[in-house]
């Protein structure tokens, strides 16, 4: 699992960077890309990013 030290993600730029880093980390661990995207977005929402549930 990616670094858990990022407690709060405050602005849009930080949210995008957070999601991008976590997708890369999940894929590197061997997770399928679609599942990695879903996991990263879920983590970002949990930390306060405003991401729609499309």
Blueprint of the fold:
Elements: H1 12-28, H2 33-46
Helix pairs in contact: 1-2
Q: Tell me the span between the first and last alpha carbons.
A: 24 Å
Q: How many structural domains can be distinguished in the coordinates?
A: 1
User: What is the helix fraction of residues, given as a range?
Assistant: 55-70%
Topology as a string of helices (H) and strands (E): HH
Report the oligomer. Answer: single chain
Unreliable stretches, pLDDT < 50, 5 or more residues?
none
Please describe the biggest sheet, giving its number of strands, its sense, and whether it closes into a barrel. Answer: none
Average pLDDT taken over every residue: 84
Total number of β-strand segments?
A: 0
Q: Count of DSSP helices?
A: 2
Approximate strand percentage:
under 5%
Gyration radius, rounded? 10 Å
Shape verdict:
globular
Query: Based on helices, strands and strand pairing, what is the structural class?
Result: mainly alpha
Kindly describe this structure.
The protein has about 55 residues and is mostly helical. The protein has one domain (about 1-54). It is about 55% helix and about 0% strand. It contains 2 helices and no strands. α1 packs across α2. The longest helix is centred in the middle third of the chain and has 17 residues, at about 10-30. It is globular and about 30 Å long.
């Amino acid at each position: 699992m990616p670094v858990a030290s990022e407690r709060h993600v405050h602005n849009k730029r930080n949210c995008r960077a957070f999601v991008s880093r976590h997708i890369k980390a999940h894929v590197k661990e061997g997770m399928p890309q679609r599942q990695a995207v879903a996991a990263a977005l879920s983590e970002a929402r949990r930390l306060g990013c405003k991401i729609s549930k499309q």
